[in-house]
Design brief:
336 residues
């Protein structure tokens, strides 16, 4: 991916101060995995990382073929039981997600997105940043990634097999990326800033979730939370979820009623599943939690909803969690 996009937007993108992505650097991976596996928790907080003073230029792959993203039909999972609804024709944004979820070659998928990313198209630039996010841990050092996977297999812990399978899935899908492609936090952040400024609501929400909002003004942040909820966009719901968790503790009046606890973050994620985010057993969501944090289901057929209600929500809290999700997805709908 030698074709670089160098624009004024690159210079304007803010420096990275916190990690809001599921990047898995080798120095911390095994320690984090051991801690999570030993504790048996469902959720792992992001940690601050050191970055350069300014993000590097946004790397965009050269075009391959026509760059068209194929259409598809899929079922939509229900957050309560995970059973797919009837298949339906996908919107352009959903087709982009579908390719991201199911492509065996994410390098090739990134190449397909290249022309649209270079043209500043918001949806494609946002999805491109998701590819970088998903593959960043592997691309930083494929050899180290493989050695860490072998080390995790040798631990013979309860979730070792599931974590190894998830990491192998990431390695296979990201196999053509190398350290030279610069899938760094700064590059991810710069792409998300560019996508948000071009009009991508999920990218704008992700920046807030990364503690890098386009605007620090409280009125802006409150409006953004309202826009995300009213949009019923599954990508935006999931992207903003970190800010709706314990990060907003004590500020429920600011962020809304479904905010301030670890369960509220899960409620936004479950709502994203109900709205159409792929939360199936081999989805990007489940794979990322398991591969990068050791947060793995013991049942390979279990989707995210089933996993949450099985491992994180006490039996007495099931009705409360469902009420939270119902309240989120029942928000005002925007005009499409």
């Amino acid at each position: 991916m030698s074709d670089l996009l160098t624009s004024e937007l690159d210079k304007q993108a803010p420096p990275a101060a916190r990690a809001g992505v599921f990047a898995s650097g080798r120095p911390v991976l095994l320690v984090a995995a051991l801690a999570l596996l030993a504790g048996g928790v469902l959720y792992a907080r992001r940690s601050p990382v050191e970055t350069q003073d300014a993000p590097k230029p946004i790397a965009v792959p050269a075009a391959a073929g026509t760059g068209a993203v194929a259409s598809a039909t899929v079922g939509v999972a229900d957050a309560r039981g995970g059973a797919p609804a009837l298949s339906r024709a996908l919107s352009p944004a959903a087709r982009l997600r579908e390719r991201f979820e199911h492509s065996d070659d994410l390098y090739g998928y990134a190449q397909e997105l290249g022309p649209a990313v270079r043209a500043g198209q918001p949806a494609e630039t946002w999805m491109y940043s998701r590819v970088l996010d998903y593959c960043s841990g592997y691309a930083a050092s494929p050899a180290d990634y493989g050695r860490d996977t072998q080390a995790i297999a040798g631990m013979n812990l309860r979730t070792s097999a599931a974590m190894v399978a998830a990491r192998n899935r990431v390695g296979q899908r990201c196999a053509r990326f190398t350290p030279d492609d610069d899938l760094s936090y700064a590059t991810i952040l710069a792409n998300r800033v560019r996508a948000a400024k071009a009009g991508s609501l999920p990218a704008e929400a992700a920046l807030l979730g990364m503690d890098e909002p386009l605007n620090d003004d409280e009125d802006y942040v409150r409006d953004l939370v309202d826009r995300v909820r009213n949009s019923l966009d599954p990508e935006a719901f999931f992207a903003i979820s970190p800010k709706m968790g314990i990060a907003s503790s004590g500020r429920r009046n600011f962020y809304g009623p479904v905010a301030g606890t670890q369960f509220s973050e899960l409620a936004w994620q479950l709502a994203a599943c109900r709205l159409g985010l792929d939360c199936s057993p081999d989805s990007v969501l489940m794979t990322t939690y398991c591969a990068n944090g050791g947060i793995c289901s013991q049942d390979p057929s279990q989707d995210f909803s089933g996993f949450v209600f099985d491992a994180a929500v006490p039996r007495q809290g099931t009705e409360v969690m469902n009420d939270l999700v119902d309240g989120l997805v029942g928000g005002a709908r925007t005009t499409k």
